[in-house]
């Protein structure tokens, strides 16, 4: 304490009242009795407690999911058949001029193949 500048300390900190001047924020979708007990027992803020609830419900977005199945003769030709079916799907999307379309590519090898053949001309890539 020989190097402490007491003029910079707040008076409530030196009187051990700093627990009354803190901000506690808890985010929860639902009010639980445990949260109320936590505030009642441990939150002794000088200004009191404010509970804010949302008036507006979140928007309900409707999305359409289209799953496609392709057929192949053998396991060895499956990569080429998958890429050919993707080309058909992509040409349909381009003809219909659909906006906000997300295509998920699960295989990194397929991702590299798409990147090589299309680049950034047709769509934007999102990668790790």
Automatic annotation (TrEMBL):
UniProt domain UTP25 NTP hydrolase-like: residue ranges: 3-48
GO process terms (BP): maturation of SSU-rRNA from tricistronic rRNA transcript (SSU-rRNA, 5.8S rRNA, LSU-rRNA)
Entry GO MF terms: rRNA binding; U3 snoRNA binding
GO cellular component: small-subunit processome
Coiled coil stretches, renumbered: none
Official protein name in the record: U3 small nucleolar RNA-associated protein 25 (Trinotate prediction)
């Amino acid at each position: 304490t020989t190097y402490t500048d007491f003029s910079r300390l707040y008076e409530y900190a030196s009187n051990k009242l700093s627990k009354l001047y803190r901000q506690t924020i808890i985010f929860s979708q639902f009010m639980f009795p445990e949260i109320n007990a936590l505030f009642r027992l441990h939150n002794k803020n000088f200004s009191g407690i404010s509970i804010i609830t949302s008036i507006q419900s979140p928007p309900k977005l409707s999305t359409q999911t289209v799953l496609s199945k392709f057929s192949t003769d053998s396991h060895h030709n499956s990569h080429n058949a998958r890429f050919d079916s993707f080309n058909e799907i992509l040409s349909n999307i381009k003809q219909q001029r659909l906006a906000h379309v997300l295509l998920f590519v699960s295989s990194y090898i397929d991702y590299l193949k798409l990147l090589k053949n299309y680049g950034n001309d047709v769509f934007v890539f999102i990668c790790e």
